[in-house]
Every structure is written in structure tokens, then in C-alpha cells.
Prior knowledge:
By secondary structure, chain A is α+β, with helices and mostly antiparallel strands. Chain A has helices at residues 3-16, 43-53, 73-86, 130-145, 172-177, 196-202, 233-237, 275-292, 329-350, 369-381, 396-400, 427-446, and strands spanning 90-93, 99-103, 111-117, 154-159, 220-228, 241-247, 249-258, 262-263, 298-300, 305-307, 313-314, 317-326, 353-362, 365-366, 386-391, 406-411.
Amino acid sequence: MRPRALIVLAILSSFFSSASAQSVPNSGAPVQTPAASKFHINLQRLQGTLEKLSEFGRNPEGGVTRLAYSETELPAREYVIGLMKQAGLEVRTDAAANIFGRRAGSENLPVLLFGSHIDSVLKGGNFDGDVGSLGAIEVINALNQGAVKTRHPLEVVIWMNEEGNHFGVGTMGSGIAAGLIGSEILERKDEQGLTVADWLRRYGQDPAHLTDARIARGALASYLELHIEQGPNLDEAKVPIGVVQGIVGLNRWRCVATGFANHAGTTPMDRRKDALAAASRDLLAVREVVRAEKGRQVGTVGYVKAEPGAVNVIPGRVEFPIELRDLDAAKIERMWDQVQQKLKQIDKEENVETRCTEFDNVTAARTDPSIQAAIREAAKSLGLATMDLPSGAVHDAQQMAKLAPFGMIFVPSRDGISHSPKEFTSWPDVANGAEVLYRSLLLVDAR
Amino acid sequence: MRPRALIVLAILSSFFSSASAQSVPNSGAPVQTPAASKFHINLQRLQGTLEKLSEFGRNPEGGVTRLAYSETELPAREYVIGLMKQAGLEVRTDAAANIFGRRAGSENLPVLLFGSHIDSVLKGGNFDGDVGSLGAIEVINALNQGAVKTRHPLEVVIWMNEEGNHFGVGTMGSGIAAGLIGSEILERKDEQGLTVADWLRRYGQDPAHLTDARIARGALASYLELHIEQGPNLDEAKVPIGVVQGIVGLNRWRCVATGFANHAGTTPMDRRKDALAAASRDLLAVREVVRAEKGRQVGTVGYVKAEPGAVNVIPGRVEFPIELRDLDAAKIERMWDQVQQKLKQIDKEENVETRCTEFDNVTAARTDPSIQAAIREAAKSLGLATMDLPSGAVHDAQQMAKLAPFGMIFVPSRDGISHSPKEFTSWPDVANGAEVLYRSLLLVDAR
């Protein structure tokens, strides 16, 4: 942290509170909620907008299904654009359908970008992405209310298709902005046969200009994102603020096991080429390999689609994805080698042929140490304990890592539940996160 | 076989051929195709109607998808009704949408019923059901051409929804006719939310009269069905005619494994309640139990549907069917007990809860020894070798077993393939089957 930041921090500290709580990584220290009067952000206003947003795509059982590129997401975007305009932001949508809202800075400096996403997974919750998106807009409102000027221009961003449940490619908008995804994505088709280009047109964009969405190197000073942890660490340790050390990388493969569809009553057990039995063994082999390594790596098979898929027919063709995640790319590679060996052996034993093709590859990204420090200091100024931890989930921040130093603030997820209607973060935790974002942003701006 | 049958057989034998080939069960004797002139049935005519029928619901890759109760099946039914009328049959459709075509007999006797079905599985072939259905109509044409009178009235039947790929209940039409399925079936819903009653109305029937479709005890003298084997036994042994000893019973359960849907990146491996991992182990446990027993029993899991079914979400709920088949009901029960024990253990280890509900239960049925003898003699009169074998597939004949003595004639399936576009029976084999049906029918009629 440079001198200017120290001065700002001193101002912030005296202005906000004289909380003495230390940053206690991995401690079980209780949540300390400072008096609301010390907060710049307005929780009531933020809660109101989050509750309104939760109506777009609400599931009967709670939570939302608000897939990117859907008729459900469109009005939610309009709602958020309205909020940005109300906050005085100059709103523009890029060719990848990312939404930006700009607030001028006092100096001719690169942009300080912060935000998140509002698309969800199938049967997702109300906090993943939403807290960081509306939290960012709330930060602008708080700055406006305090008539706070920043040196850097600020931009709030709502990234397009972070989850990737539609089209099977996550962090799509930020990937395009980072120049990591090119116009080849336009022809990708969904299950209805519609392409990304078709959807971009429906969203009012001209696909021919997709690469205009790329952000030039040097255009960004830093990227900041507030997000729910989506894991159990903060909730279990009762620590209100997570300082993200880095985001794990992930690789995804789509596998197809081909056996032979045949009559379930007349085909003897020893003559079968049962693609579903093979895929079941493949799934368990993935788990076995992942469990055999020490560390926090995870591996998942999210579905198994059998064809023809009738009760009285031996499945002849099965499709399933394999996903591996870790901070260490070499470990992912090592695990994948082992998985492939096991799949080959299972193919032999089951008289089936399995082919896997990689369709997603996101490299791990470390957060910027000085931004980590700013987040710790911001939390400290509020008397909030922090924990350093990696993010097991992919985030748009990972793509921004290609363009600028970045940092992430985590708030607790109850029981570590996410991508589920039961996903929950308490309002005090949401408020803490937004206020830490506000303070971190000013510290980073002052660097 | 009674004296009258012997006289008829003597007439048939002298009239047709003096072939000396013996009935050689389980032998590898080559197919002997008698000169077409000795055939009463007309293969060209039969082949023409089978080829025309194959156009209704044809798949791009060959074979058909002609599910019962579908807009695809309706015109196929109209086509077959037309053929029956052309053959001079008095056609009626019962309240279960089974189609009957009647030819009067010379004596006041119960009906000699024979036929099959024209519905298919998803991506099925062109022989399963079709050969027996159009073969039966061809037998009527042959009787007409020879001006042959039968003692019993003859009825050709086309059963409704034998495969059960729609509504998940097989041999539905024959089950209703046998009084084994009642009006409770009417409210059963398909994936589009349409009920059996809705479909019956679309097929021109009044669901309120469903039970009128029941066939009274004593109304049938016998039931005969020609069908492809759907297994590899006849094809491998190069025996053209199978004499079915009985049809295996089957039980089907629908299982739901409930775990907990959660984020695939942030949920540690040891905290997961992965319903798909549990279901994969369940599937393999079913296979292990079935393989452990001696005999011809089979067990199958035809699909596994995971929810929410996204690449980055641990599946929280999985649905899959289990099917067990054998001639011996006690063996099925024994295997199911073992499967349940294994599933319970897997539930414990996976922190998942699995519940299975039986939704289909068809008891095994033995064919009538005197009808078996008639089929053997009919084949012998043509110089065709026969093999006694059980049917691993369910057939409508199984339901008819409740009402009358029954028999089944099998013809070879190339490589034992069925329920697949690759399903194939050669035209000489189809002709042999239809001619054996013709001759068996006259022998049974003469009893």
C-alpha cells in the first residue's frame, strides 16, 4: 500500500469507527456488526433492490432460474439498467451484452471497474452474482450521497452469462471483454438450435461487432468484485469477510460413451454393450482419482444423458460432462491423465468406446496482494474479522485477471450452500460486504 | 394333438411337401427354405405391406419411432385397418383402442385369436410387432385365396401400446382386454400432461366404456402370436423357427435418489450428497446381483435423469428405473431383496436417500403344450428345424395367458438385435414364420 492510501485509510478510520478487532484468518471470532450509522451504504435500499430482482425468474420452490440469454433475464436486465441510471451512471451495453455504468473521476486515469452478474444456474439462488451486482450500484449511491469524488473514473459492470448454463460456456461476457473468447462463439448452438448470435440480436446487439467488446490493455486500473463465498468456510468459522487469494482453475470435458442399444429382455447380461453402466463406472472413477489426491481439488459429473432412454432398452449412447477444479493447473493435468487411463480400462472391460473433448478451460488466477491488503484494511476499519481463502468457484474476475490487478471480497453462504434455492446470506453479511467494497474501492482509488 | 389334428396335418403334409427334415431343437441345422409354390402365404404381398408400414414414423437413421398414442401411430393404424377390410375382415375397435378383424367360422365355437402390435419403442425397428400383425392379415388373405373354412371364428388383433414407451405401462391394450388393467389407468399422465383418457378420446374412443374392452372368459379358444425373437438364439444356431416355452415375468421399479444440489466448485468432496454418484453405484449393484445368479435372468437400468442437470452443480435428485426379468418369480424376488439391501448400504455411505416404487409387474406365463406341438408339426411339414426357447421379452400373449391357452412362434433376429433401427429379420424368415402361423392355426382349429 502506497502513502496516499495510508492517508485515505487514516481518514476513513477516524471517520467510520475506532474498532479494534484484528483480522483473524481462520479464527472462530464472532461476527461484529458495527452500528448502521457508521455505514455509507444503505442496507434497506440494497435489500429492497435485491428483493425486487429476486422476482425475475423466481422458482415455485424459491430462488430463481434466470439463465443468461433468456426471456426471463431480459426484464431483469432492464430493471438493473434502470437502477444504474437512477444512480446517475452513464449506461452503455457492449456488443457482448455486458452492461457498464460510468461515473467520472477527477483525474485522467484508467477505469476502476467493479461489479458481478445477474444470470443464475438452473434452480439457483438469490445471492450468487446479485449481491455483487446490486452491491456495486449501492456503492455508487453511497458515493453520490456523500458527494465523494474519486480520482479514477468508476465503472459498474454486469457481466453477461457468467454461469454458462446456457450454451455451456461460463464467464462468457467477461471472456469476450478480456479477448479470450472470439467471434467463434457466435455460432455456438443451444438445445433449441439458436446461436449466441441469434440471442445477441434479440438482446439488441450486432454480433458482427462482437470483438468491439474487448477492453484494451491499460484501460483498467483494477477490478474488484463482491460475491458470496458459495462454500462453507466463512459460515463455519463465523468470519464475516473473506479475502480471496485466488480463483481455482477448471477444465471441463464432454464425454460420449458409445455401446449398443438393444432389447433389455432378450439380450443376455454377458452380450451387452451397456453405455450407461460404463458411464456409471466412469463417474465413480473420476471421484476416486480426485479423492486420492491431497488438497482442496474437486471433480464433478453433473448429469448423465442416456439414449434412447427407455425403461426396456439397454442404453447405447450416453453423454456426460467431467469437471475438475484446482488452483494448481499441474494437479488438474495429473488427475486428468489418471482419469483417462481409468476410462480406457473401463471401455475395454465394458466393450464400449468413450471419447472426451475439452470444451472449457479456465486457468487459475491469483489476486493482487495490494488489493488484498486494501480489503483487509477496509474490514479492519469496520471491526470485521477476515479470512484469507481461495475461491473454488469460477468468477468473471478470473477473466479480468488478464487485463488488470484484481481482488475479491467474499461474504458468508449459510451452510456453504449455493447454486440452489436454499442459497442464503444474511442481510447484515450483505451490508458488511457492500460496505467493505465501498471502503476498499476508495483505498484502491487512492493508490 | 388329437385325432382330428392328425388328419388335417396329413392333408397339409401331402398337399405342401414331403420334406423329411426333422425338428432339431437347439441344433445348428441350416435353414431350409421350401419352394415358394408350397407356401400358402404370399411373401411379396406381405413384404409390400411391411415396407409400406415402415414409412409411418420412419427415423432418419432407419427403423421407426411410432409410439403408441401418437400422431405418428394414428395413420399407421388407419393403414392397417384398411388392409384388414381389404382382407374381408369385419373390423371393430374396442374401448382400449385394440383393433379386431373377424372372419366367421363354420361352427359355433369360441374365437381363435391371433395377431400382435404395431407400436414401437423410441428409435425402434421395422419387425418387432409388425411381422406378427401383418403376418396375421396375410394368413387371412391366404385362407381367402384357398377358400379355406375354419371351424372357429378367426380374429386378427392389433394390440394397443404393447411397448409402453408412452405412459410407461407395456401390454396396455391386452392388459385391459384381460381385465388386469382397470379404469385407474385412464388418469395416468404423460410428460406433456395428457392422460390415457385424453389419448383414447383422440383415438375416437369413449374412456367411460374402457372396461367394455374386457374379453369374457370362454370367449377365446386359443391365442397365437408370431413375433421376432429379439434375442440371438435362433440366429446363432441358424434355426428358422422358435417354439416359445413361456414368457419371462418382469418387475419394474422407479427409484428416486435424493441428495443435495450444491455448487460443484465450492463443495468439498467429503461434504457432498451426490445423488448421481449414489445412483451410479445403485446401477452397478443391480448388475452385480443379476450376474451373481445362474441362469438367463436379466436386469437393466435404462436411464438416469439427474436434476438440476448442469455441468457445474452437484446433482441433488436422480430418477432411474430398475427392471428385472426371469421365468421364475421367486428368483426375481430374491434378486430384488438383494438389490434393496445393497441400495440401503449405498444410501448410508453416500448420505443419500433412495426410494423405489414398483410400477410394473408382469408374471411369467407358460405356453400351451399342445399348441407348442402344433407349431413343431407345422414347421416339420415345411421341413423347417425348430428350437424350444423362452421369451425374454414381454408380449401381449402374456396377458392372453389369463384367458386362454396360448402359443408363440419366433423367427430369427439378426445378431439378436431389437429395439433398434438395426433390428432385422430376412424375408425368407418372415415368410417361414407367416406360413408356420398359417399351418399352426389350422392345426389348432382342427383340435
